Structure formats: C-alpha cells, structure tokens
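Pasting as-is:
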Amino acid sequence: MMKSLPHKLSRPVRFTLVAIGVFLLMRIFASCGAAKGDLQIVRTAQVVRGDLSVTVSSTGTVQPYNRVEVKAPIAGRIEEVLVREGDEVKKGQVLARMSSVERAALLDAARSRGDEVVKRWEEAYLPAPLLAPLDGTIIVRSVEPGQTVTTADPVVVLSDRLIVQALVDETDLAFIRLAQPVEITLDAYRDELVPGTVDHIAFESTLENNVNVYAIDVAPEALSESFRSGMTANVTFIVKDCKNVLTVPSEAVVAWPKNIPNPSGAVFAVYKKVFGGKLEPVAVKTGETDGVRTEITDGLKEGAEIAVVRKKEKERSSNLFGSPRAARKSGATKSS
C-alpha cells in the first residue's frame, strides 16, 4: 500500500517552489511588455496626411547682376551731381557735370574779374556731362560737387537689378534647375519672405573651405525696398512640393530586418505593436523625404499607429540571481 504525501512541505522545498514561481512570473511579464527581439519602443506615432516640401538650403549675398562704375571721362572737377543713391535712372540720362582741368582753371581765374566774365566763359565753355550707360538704380554716389577726380575715379555706381548669388555644394547641384522656385529671407529682415526663381547656374566651380561649390543666381520676383547690395540672404530651393500625402517620422522608417522572412521583397519597413506588446514589421514603399518626415506611398493607412524603435542596450546579466561567470569566479576565489 502506497503512503500518502505529507500535507506540509519542508521549508527548503517551499522556498524553491516560490523562487521558481517568481522567476516564471517575471519571464511572463517581461515577454508581454517587451518588444520583439533586441528592439525597444522609443515612442509611438501616427500616419498623418499633409504637405511635404523637399528643399535645399544655402546662404548667399545680395549683389548687382550688372555692376557698372561710371568714371570721369577726363580729369577735372565735379561741378554738380544730379542723382543720389536709390534713384532710378534711364540710359542716356545726365548723372553729373564736370569741368576739365583747363576749364576749372579758366573759371577760377574769371571769378576774380566778376560775375559777368564768369557767366560768359560758362556759356562759351560748357561742362562735360556724365551719362548713364544703361537703365538701373544708383547704388553708390562716390563724389560731391567741388571734388577733383581722375579718369580712374568712379563718380557713381549703377546696378541694372539686384539678385542673390548663392553657393551650392556640388553634391546638391543635381537638385537645382533653371526657373526653379526659391524662397529668400534676409538676415536683416527675417520675417520677410521673398519668392524668386533660379536665373543662372554657373558652369565652373570655385573652392570654398576645400569644397567645390557652384554660384547660383537667384532673381527675386518682386524686389523689396529692404534689399541692399551686400546683404546676407538665406536661400531655400524648392526641389519638390508634395501636397496631401501620407507621412511618418523619418526615424520610423527602417530597412527590412534580415532575420524575418520577406515574401514581398520589401526594402523598407515600419514597426507596429501587436497583441502582447510585441513588434511586427510592416512592408512599406516610400516617396519623398525632407529629413524629418517621409512620404509613404503604399503599406499604411491614415491614422495607423506605428512605433519608432531602437536597439536595446545590452544587459549586463540575463540571470535572475546573478551572473554564473561571476559566481564561478567568486567560488574560485574562495576555494583558493
């Protein structure tokens, strides 16, 4: 006849059973709340619909498209200047009048004889006019009446129109095209946004800080009065402007995991949480990206919840009661 089991277990046996139960519960809770494999959830996000602009940013300088220095045709003295900075002038317009060295000396001598003599010589010996060579704006007035000048001295500086010249890295040159829309802001007026277009792309590069860059001429559509030659400008080239598309955070898009079967041959994936808190990759097709958000062309619906994940940090020990290696090392120390 078999003996019945004792109703009371010994203390060591009870302790062992409790320890095993605690261990199993911890494993169960860990498996329910942990992400699949070596991934952990950083945050969750939703698939949203909106606009996405792909841009290339650069800095530039406001400068004249054609900068013309109007110099004195002869050495002499400036009698009068008829324009000032900011004036719009037409081709052939008289900008200033000047006397040659001989006329200036003659008039100075005539002044000692009286106004009638001066008037007679002024009518007989007319001053030389300085004419505008093109339509444009006076951006520099270099001299004032009474100053003497040589043929090397500019009297005024004329600009036909102001542009922004931006320097673009050669790696971004493929994204730039003629007539491409551009947004311009000035450092001096950051709240003022001026639209423009690409007017010219340089055919030869220059070396800036050991980087090949190309000069891009940007023409503002409507020149603001705040534009001044020499100002620093920030230029944003609109590469693509996607309207009403599905987007997700760019950091949520990852390469399809190698350790998971890929029947659809997907290149990219995003993760979503499934039952039990595990992570599951979803195959997606991507479109444009601005670096912050990425367009999703297939694989997700608007409003779907996805997860931004990262690899878990390696745990120092996966043993509940301590590291076996450390225990062996401790035992070896004691035995020695």
